[in-house]
Amino acid sequence: MRRWRRARVEERGRLRGLSAPAPAYVRNEADLLAALAAVYEKDGAAPLRALQRRAGRAGTEVFVLPLTNAFRIVNRMHLPTD
Question: How is the chain split into domains, by residue range?
Fold first, then answer.
């Protein structure tokens, strides 16, 4: 899995372009969005459906994390609400 993550990070090439602060230095929404995007990229940028499954379900059929919200978060468009 580690090799896959490293290969995926290298293949996407987005991590180098992100200037994300360390968690201790996050001061505003833009910093937090950059930090979340960097964590996502460092972890190999899993498919959004995998993120949705990891977040779990509320009840039997409704996912806690809608795909549109996951897309907006990883593309630095919107912060998570909770």
Answer: 2-74
